[in-house]
Known about the structure:
Blueprint: H1 14-33, H2 40-51, E1 55-56, H3 57-64, H4 68-80, E2 84-88, E3 96-100, H5 102-122, H6 128-149
Antiparallel strand pairs: 1-3, 2-3
Amino acid sequence: xxxxxxxxxxxxxxxxxxxxxxxxxxxxxxxxxxxxxxxxxxxxxxxxxxxxxxxxxxxxxxxxxxxxxxxxxxxxxxxxxxxxxxxxxxxxxxxxxxxxxxxxxxxxxxxxxxxxxxxxxxxxxxxxxxxxxxxxxxxxxxxxxxxxxxxxxxxxxxxxxxxxxxxxx
Length: 169
């Protein structure tokens, strides 16, 4: 019989707090994007393509930390909405690159101020040193969690043979 799990107060859980913040960022961003007819899921791909246009679907999936199937669905919808197009790679015809359309590129100037405003609101009243510490800790946490997927046994959860990282999104 498994032992009783240790109680974990959500207020003291890093995972809970990160998700809570993310959901609030997401809700504010959605409120800003909806009047433009954009889905919040598009934002993460647009942000990456505004920085580095012409990535492969696999690279986009990796950079957004989303499964390739989910990325494919979102890219299909973005193509349909005229934000991106697929183009064959000049050197490797087997690869397709995801490229912003003129409309997708123009949205950067139209929408980036929302991200800036939301971040400023979130960081209001927090001094620069605390922000730098928080970002450093979050980056290290992300690296620690990424290493869990590199475990040669593929086992993520201690003492549980059913838990592995193969289906994580």
